[in-house]
Amino acid sequence: MRGPRRGRNPMNIHEYQAKALLKEFGVPVSRGLAAFTPQDAEAAAAKLGGIAFVVKAQIHAGGRGKGKFKELPAEAKGGVRVVKTAADVKANAAEMLGNTLVTIQTGPDGKQVNRLYIEEGASIDKEFYLSMLVDRATARVAFVVSTEGGMDIEEVAHATPERIVTFSVDPATGVQPLHGRKVAQALGLSGDLAKQAVALTANLYRAFTDKDMSLLEINPLVLTRDDRLVCLDAKVGFDSNALFRHPEVVQLRDESEEDFKEIEASRYDLSYIALDGTIGCMVNGAGLAMATMDIIKLYGREPANFLDVGGGATKEKVTAAFKIITADPNVEGILVNIFGGIMRCDVIAEGVIAAVRQMGLNVPLVVRLAGTNVEEGKKIIRESGLNVIPADDLDDAAQKIVAAVKKEAA
Questions:
Q1: What is the pLDDT of residues 230-282, one digit of tens each?
Q2: Number of domains comprising the chain
Q3: Whole-prediction pTM
Q4: DSSP letter (8 states) at residue 241
Q5: Are residues 39 and 172 in the same domain?
Q6: What is the C-alpha to C-alpha distance for residues 149 and 130, in angstroms, rounded to an integer?
Q7: Which of 16, 117, 129, 272 does the annotation list as catalytic?
Q8: Which residues are Mg(2+)-binding (predicted)?
């Protein structure tokens, strides 16, 4: 495994994987089994037994219950369905698998459902919300708790903020019973239920810190009619910079749920995040990358990505970075902005030229180089015979790429 690095998206896992992980830490979760075919789903229901089952689409997005399948009639049910028999489970699984579920979080393209989670039905009395995240302002793990479970927490925060309780845990002391009592109080629990809340809080905190999570969301956390607290859903994201410590977590990665460009970037140890704009950026250094994106916005366009090739990039890494940018169909122009400290400008130039010759260039390309071996880099680009627009500084580069893109669009 590679060591930690900056600028990567969290690694998410599916609900059934998250519940299996939480169960290892003593967290109460409902019984369920993963299914990849309608036959798997039917067999899972038969094994679980009971009078009701929940068929859940497994995608890395929320809002599944209210989602709609592209290929199915508008009146068809969403991605979370309650049914009564194993035969019903099989029929619903056949309808869901292989189809595209569109939710409020997937965007209009949706995500194809390749996995299901078949879960035992639950007798629910109340639904709560509980999540944990890293609070950057306090550098602590924070809890967010609400009695309004099963709802969009952003909507709750907007309409009834008084129903949300937040607190953080001092890493010097770690989680204490008092934190569990805060959860119980926020949810209106007493007696044995308060004791369950204390144990749940401690176990969730241990799972969060031991596995280097960046987000743990339980929505809903339910109170069953037989007075048990159970995590009925679980959304987990991991700090990608800490994955080198957790090969067992890396094994849970589902690349079909990720942007292929970000997958390719991870293979070359590139810090890449796809954005919604039209100007691709290749920069070395996170600060310079942010400044590059800001100045593109200043001149009226939006960046298509954050891409930091790092301080010691090779020709092969630069070539890969350029290919990733050009693979985005929304890119209308590319800005390469390199300040050579450890990174040499001639290496960047060789990588860019190699990528352009291999893939062709169908959009304007502006290159700004400064620092180590800058003259050699400029000479390589100048003598390449390619239609590359040189720039003297960042401001000049941003103006030139925006102008070139506008000219192409005119």
A1: 999 999 999 988 999 999 999 999 988 887 787 888 887 888 988 989 999 99
A2: 3
A3: 0.79
A4: G
A5: no
A6: 8
A7: 129
A8: 219, 233
